[in-house]
TrEMBL record:
It comes from Flavobacterium sandaracinum. Coiled coil: none annotated. Transmembrane segments: none annotated. It comes from the Bacteria. This is site-specific DNA-methyltransferase (adenine-specific).
Length: 552
């Protein structure tokens, strides 16, 4: 059984704030991450080389290993063989480009030159491996206003074990650092609401819902690559093979694109990531993906739909009727649908307003999607899931696999599943809520059972254990049943009757309250007694306050 603890991401806010203080005055706030992230990336490559080097050295000493040898020349040759390291997803990192070398020389007056020279060495390795990685580590320290002392301070801070991939192999450290600096210095960054790193528990939920075991995975707003990182974790946890997936992504910000490439390179994934505005400059016009996982910028206005070509193949109809300059939300929807394969499924994070917007260019698209059976599921999420925006969000699950012809899922063209998860999640701090494993499993299992059974609303059978809207039967297929306040499989006619509003609360109703067995009269007596006691305490407190005032 899965643990039900809430998993917050690694906590290194203090160290990152200290690093920001080292940069303050010499680097603009919106550029803090541009200095920190490349150093962390170099640190991870260096750590990985050290780990693999030690693994190979142990094999060379082990008489039971095929690598075993006592020939010193052979040992040195194998320990320096680039192919040995590439086969283990790392590079031979020369001493002068290693993290230990930077740390040992952090107090030198020319430390900025030492860092940029290390970047050059690593960059040559990356470009030789994949030309798409060119300019991943530009020389930025020598040209900066940072002093040698400030630079040394940053290196010492990042040497903390919290920033070690070796010590924290499951954490998306690069992504979390990016989120911290974007969130803390959002005004300096100038980013619109919704342009942010997606928290790990939301990404995990999307991936658990979609189950991307194999095929083409596409994110046309890929940011730091967190969706891809979590997809790989899912594959590893379920015994899959990362060679069975191909990654495609598009990102319009150069520095964020670099971060995405760093993330994918560290995980040795097959990828094709391009730079550009996915709405107006689609770099993958012919791509049909098996899975789309995305968190596009919310509510982007003034995105210039007039620049779309006439007859853009992504549009469901005339662009004057199916776009609006007030928000790009539903242009994203049309883009996602266009890029799905014949059996593809998309999971999208959206602002809550997308579920009910009445703007012509948005409602027309939403109505078209409902009428043409494009929407599989809507999930309303709780607040405070994002550190960087207060905009409430939901999930749209779109699918071209609703006809039941794949042999794995039932026909559900006339239904949409609505899930209200607004009361789920656990507060891990005053500002942040995360989904626990139990939360993720409840939502994902409910969706999977709904789309996999022979019919919705299956009657409860003997031997059934009902848990959170999912009925688990011993020896037979899981079945789905509506749960008041949480889940409802609504017909398209019901949605049309509600003027195409997609807010789950309209359909799932109110959660049934459990009877605690206490008579109403007894409850009232208890409440009355409590209230009278509180009144007495209030009067006493008032007298004490008045007496204190008189002594002044």
């Amino acid at each position: 059984m899965s643990k039900t603890i809430a998993k917050a991401d690694i906590d290194f806010e203090k160290e990152l704030w200290d690093a920001a203080n080292e940069l303050r005055g010499a680097v603009s706030e919106n550029n803090y991450k541009n200095y920190i992230l490349p150093l962390v990336f170099l640190k991870h490559l260096s750590e990985r080389y050290d780990i693999v080097h030690d693994e190979i050295a142990d094999l060379l000493k082990d008489p039971k290993s095929d690598y075993y040898t006592s020939d010193k020349e052979e040992i040195n040759y194998v320990l320096e063989d680039r192919d040995e390291y590439r086969s283990r997803n790392t590079f031979v990192v020369p001493k002068k480009a290693s993290w230990n070398y930077l740390k040992d020389n952090a107090e030198q007056d020319d430390i900025k030159v030492i860092i940029d020279d290390a970047f050059d060495v690593i960059q040559d390795l990356l470009t030789d491996h994949n030309p798409q990685l060119n300019n991943l580590l530009p020389r930025i320290f020598v040209r900066s206003e940072l002093s040698a002392k400030q630079t040394a301070g940053i290196i010492n801070l990042l040497s903390h074990t919290k920033f070690s991939e070796k010590e924290n192999p499951e954490s998306d450290i690069l992504g979390r650092i990016y989120e911290f600096y974007i969130g803390r210095f959002a005004m300096a960054e100038g980013s619109g609401a919704g342009q942010f790193f997606t928290p790990g528990s939301i990404v995990r939920l999307l991936v658990e819902i979609l189950e991307p075991y194999k095929g083409r995975i596409f994110d046309p707003a890929c940011g730091s690559g967190g969706m891809f990182v979590q997809s790989l974790k899912f594959i590893n946890e379920h015994g899959g093979n990362k060679n069975d997936i191909s990654i495609y992504g598009q990102e319009m910000t150069a520095q964020t694109l670099r971060l995405c490439l760093m993330n994918l390179l560290l995980r040795d994934l097959s990828f094709d990531i391009k730079m550009g505005n996915s709405l107006l400059d689609d770099k993958f016009p012919q791509l049909k993906a098996d899975y789309i996982i995305a968190n596009p910028p919310f509510n982007v206005s003034n995105w210039h739909p007039e620049d779309l070509p006439e007859g853009d193949p992504r549009l469901f109809g005339p662009k004057e009727e199916f776009t609006t300059d007030g928000s790009a939300n539903y242009m994203w929807m049309q883009t996602f649908w266009h890029h799905l394969s014949d059996t593809g499924t998309a999971g999208i994070v959206m602002a809550n307003g997308a579920m009910t917007s009445n703007t012509k260019g948005e409602k027309n698209v939403r109505q078209h999607m409902v009428d043409n059976s494009m929407i599989d599921c809507i999930v309303r999420m709780p607040d405070k899931l994002f550190l960087t925006t207060g905009i409430p969000a939901c999930l749209f699950i779109l699918s071209k696999n609703r006809d039941g012809k794949d042999g794995q899922h039932r026909e559900r063209n006339n239904e949409i599943l609505f899930l209200d998860a607004s009361k789920m999640g656990t507060m891990t701090s005053r500002k942040l809520r995360v989904f626990s494993d139990a939360d993720v499993n409840k939502i994902a299992d409910t969706y999977h059972n709904w789309r996999s059974v022979t019919s919705s609303g299956v009657e409860k059978q003997s031997g059934v254990e009902k848990q959170s809207g999912v009925e688990k039967q011993s020896g037979v297929e899981n079945t789905y049943k509506d749960v008041d306040g949480f889940s409802k499989a609504a017909t398209l006619a019901e949605v049309q009757k509600q003027d195409y509003k997609l807010t789950p609360g309209i359909y799932v109703g109110t959660e049934a309250e459990e009877d605690d067995g206490i008579l109403f009269e007894d409850k009232m007596e208890g409440l009355k007694a409590t209230l009278l006691t509180q009144f007495e305490k209030s009067e006493l407190l008032k007298k004490q306050i008045v007496a204190n005032f008189e002594k002044l």
